[in-house]
Amino acid sequence: MELDLVTKNKLENLLDGYSLKELKNVSFEIINRYQNESGKGNVLINDDLRSKVYAVTRFPATYKVVSDILEKSLQKYKNDIKTLIDFGSGSGSASLAAFNTFELEKITQLERDDSMIDVGQTLFNDLPIKNVSQYFKFDLTKDELKEKGDLVISSYVLNELESKERINSIKKMWESTNKFMVIIEPGTPIGSEIIKEVRSFVISLGGYVLSPCPHMNNCPIAENDWCHFSTRVSRSRLHKALKEGDSPFEDEKYSYIIFSKKEVNRCNARILRHPLIYNGYVSLTVCDQNGIENIKISKKDNKRYKLARKANVGDEF
Ligand SMILES: C[S@@+](CC[C@H](N)C(=O)[O-])C[C@H]1O[C@@H](n2cnc3c(N)ncnc32)[C@H](O)[C@@H]1O
What we know:
Elements: H1 5-13, H2 20-37, H3 48-73, E1 83-87, H4 93-101, E2 106-111, H5 114-124, E3 133-137, E4 149-155, H6 163-175, E5 177-186, H7 189-204, E6 208-211, E7 229-234, H8 237-243, E8 249-260, E9 270-271, E10 276-278, E11 281-288, E12 291-298, H9 302-310
Parallel strand pairs: 1-2, 1-4, 2-3, 4-5
Antiparallel strand pairs: 5-8, 6-8, 7-8, 9-11, 10-11, 11-12
S-adenosylmethionine is lined by residues 58, 62, 88-90, 93-94, 111-113, 116, 138-141, 155-157, 160-161.
């Protein structure tokens, strides 16, 4: 689901009064910081203008990613999900995506940075989500939490932590989880590696993988490959100007994993590459019980062939 126009406009109004030149400089500085300083435990954004520019350039994409993941994998557990804890909530895109997917009664937004909290609070000020959500200043690496949520989300946060801080943080989030925990990272080799690390750690704590993996065996992704998916996000005029691109959309790549506290039914296979359509058959690269394999779906297998032709990367098969 794309971010709605009202929220998009509210986001962009945050930048009223600044010159485009100044905003572009800040936008490129943020991109640089994320490219060069992630994973070192450094504070990447900690002032008002940078938080606003970050929100305008990133909120629509992370909102769409979280929305897609929740809709595809957790929609069917809708009635079990009434409370959310959003770790490293930033300007609140994951909270809003969850609010728009489920009927949430309480959202706890935990964030270390004051300027991010300010932006999120301003944004949510007169939106319906305000009635159920509340921000708390919280450092995932230092502070303790007694509360639990039916759903716990960490979206694009773990890659900002030093690797030694990650394990404790994951443990903390898992202990705060009543039912489901969703971890999302950028769809890069590093993001995918973090997801792989989270996967084996949470399985060792007794967690069950719900999605995207069709099994609980060791992750079969090759050393030189990475598990990621992609979603298409439309771009506003301001977004294009800030990032100096003409394309009306961008493809946001992400890696993710969802855990459940209870055993769940997993899919048979997950499509990892764009389906290739040949004369008489479709070739799919999937992850399944046998690891990663290429399967041919013949035209004679009418029902599965039709499904395969319409399938996309990331779909269950
Ligand atoms: C890339 S932003 C993602 C924000 C939001 N979750 C989203 O998906 O758009 C990462 C956020 O994590 C927060 N963060 C980083 N380290 C943190 C920590 N140790 N404790 C709490 N928040 C943290 C940052 O301040 C920032 O707001």
